[in-house]
Design brief:
Number of strands: 18
Radius of gyration: 53 Å
Largest sheet: 7 strands, antiparallel
Helix content: 25-40%
Number of helices: 12
Order of helices and strands: EEEEHHEEEEEEHEEEEEHHHHHHHHHEEE
Distance between the termini: 116 Å
Pfam family, one: SAM_2
Protein name: Sterile alpha and TIR motif-containing protein 1
InterPro entries: GAREM (IPR052281), SAM (IPR001660), SAM/pointed_sf (IPR013761)
């Protein structure tokens, strides 16, 4: 039989290679399948009567007896050629049928666990459409009489019933009216069975009453149960999903076996919905609890421990306090007084001797002039000197750009970060670093800026005066045997 089986999530939980229904209620009726009124809560009971639900074991590969030409699909070829479980990859996008749609994207990874058979019921509804109903359905089903003669038909009043041809055997009251005769009173929902019609002059005809079950109202769905069909399915899960799929082997999913991946590498991601608890497992008894100790004994022990720690902390505190006093004394002895004199612990004779040796130091004025003359101020730097300044900062790549714009020292100190980024093309961090170095260089120039003045004396000596605040006055004697003396700052 050619039919399309929808791919839907298996509404069950896996437990060690088996299925169990978690919401099944073991309540079934032993009433025969007759036309009398009876409501079943499970379609399987309605078909099989007193058969209780059994747990179904699933196999890890297909038998040769399951071969069928209509099952020539990629899923069937995989499960019939390889032993489960194994990893499979979806080669083409797939969308299932039905209200509970499952969509598989290309390159999705599936883990095929095992193979099983899910029994379904092939039915035909009142429009002639074939419908597959699951065995473990949650709907409420009502057994109906199979005689089409009892289809619903509305009669307006008793006269219309008497004149009907053929005369109906059973009627349901859908609208009732009051009557002065108690035996003629009726209620909505009562079912009447017509036995015969009596004519008694002016008296209204009487009808006999016998309560029986007839066809359901027209707003209900009616199915004709045809046969059982066992669908061979593969139970599978896919990565980072809580759904467990029951994929029929006839489903047209383009999959292939993945050889680069192993089950162990993807086990954590592919089995999030697996329930590892078996229904036959029993709770293990809790270990025996040792007898508890007396509360007073525990409190006394804790108090002794606290007292011991407290005594140790007090001893450590006193020891640290003494060390602190000793360190303060040493620090006060080594410190200088506020009036600039040395403390008593310092040898004054040594200090005087050191001052005398300092006065004998000879400082050459010509050496200072030569050193300071070599230092170029940033404000008076030329374009080439600005390039050397950039090279010292490892900004060699921007030297051609600065030379092209003729940036000298005076122009460099006027630049800001925005101009460096927009016009020169510097990065923000490089522009900021250059600005910091320029400010630092200007500050150093101001501190080391000296104006030297050479005064020639009649005795052949030359005096060099500095303009730095609190700077020394240096006298240089070029004659033989001359010495320079330093004044106090």
């Amino acid at each position: 039989m050619d039919r399309q089986v929808p791919l839907v999530p298996a509404k069950r939980s896996l437990t060690k290679g088996q299925f169990k229904t978690t919401d099944y209620r073991d309540e079934y009726s032993s009433a025969p399948l007759t036309g009398e009124s009876h409501i079943y809560e499970d379609l399987r009971h309605a078909l099989a009567g007193t058969t209780p639900f059994q747990r179904v074991c699933f196999q890890l590969n297909l038998d040769h007896t399951d071969a069928d030409s209509k099952r020539d699909t990629a899923v069937y070829r995989l499960v019939s050629s390889f032993k489960l479980p194994f990893i499979a990859k979806v080669k083409r996008k797939f969308c299932g049928l039905g209200s509970d749609v499952v969509r598989l994207q290309k390159d999705d990874v599936l883990l095929f666990h095992f193979i099983g058979r899910i029994r379904r019921v092939l039915t035909i509804d009142d429009s002639g459409r074939k419908v597959m109903l699951p065995i473990q359905a949650k709907q409420v089903y009502d057994i109906l009489p199979s005689v089409q003669q009892y289809d619903d038909k509305v009669f307006q009043g008793t006269k219309a019933v008497i004149e009907a041809r053929p005369l109906p055997n059973r009627l349901r009251i859908v609208e009732a009216h009051c009557s002065m005769f108690p035996e003629e009173s009726q209620e909505v929902g009562d079912v009447l069975e017509i036995s015969h019609i009596e004519r008694r002059g002016v008296l209204p005809p009487k009808t006999g009453v016998n309560y029986r079950r007839i066809r359901t109202p027209s707003d209900k769905r009616v199915y004709l149960l045809k046969e059982y069909i066992d669908d061979i399915v593969v139970i599978a899960t896919y990565f980072n999903s809580q759904q467990v799929l029951a994929i029929p082997v006839t489903c047209q999913i383009d999959v292939e076996k993945e050889t680069n991946l192993t089950t162990e590498t993807l086990l954590h991601g592919l089995l999030p919905a697996i329930n590892t608890d078996d229904a036959t497992d029993q709770d293990r008894p809790l270990p025996n609890i040792p007898p508890g100790k007396d509360m007073k004994e525990l409190l006394d022990k804790k108090e002794k421990e606290i007292q011991t720690l407290l005594q140790e902390n007090k001893k450590n505190y006193e020891k640290l306090k003494e060390e602190l006093v000793h360190l303060k004394d040493e620090y006060s002895q080594q410190n200088f007084s506020q009036d600039g004199e040395y403390s008593k612990g310092t040898n004054e004779q040594d200090i005087k001797q050191e001052n005398e040796e300092t006065d004998k130091t000879v400082v050459g004025g010509s050496a200072i002039e030569e050193k300071l003359s070599r230092q170029v101020k940033l404000l008076s730097a030329s374009v080439e000197e600005v390039g050397s300044f950039l090279k010292d900062l490892r900004l060699d790549s921007y030297v051609p750009r600065f030379q092209e714009e003729l940036v000298d020292g005076e122009l460099l100190v006027r630049l800001d970060e925005d101009i460096l980024k927009e016009d020169i093309g510097m990065k923000k961090i490089q522009a900021r670093r250059l600005m910091l170095e320029v400010k630092k260089r200007l500050r150093n120039d101001e501190e080391s800026d000296r104006v030297f003045e050479a005064v020639e004396h009649q005795d052949g000596t030359r005096e060099v005066r500095g303009s730095i605040e609190k700077g020394p006055s240096i006298q240089e004697n070029e004659g033989p045997g001359s010495r320079a003396s330093t004044k106090e700052l």
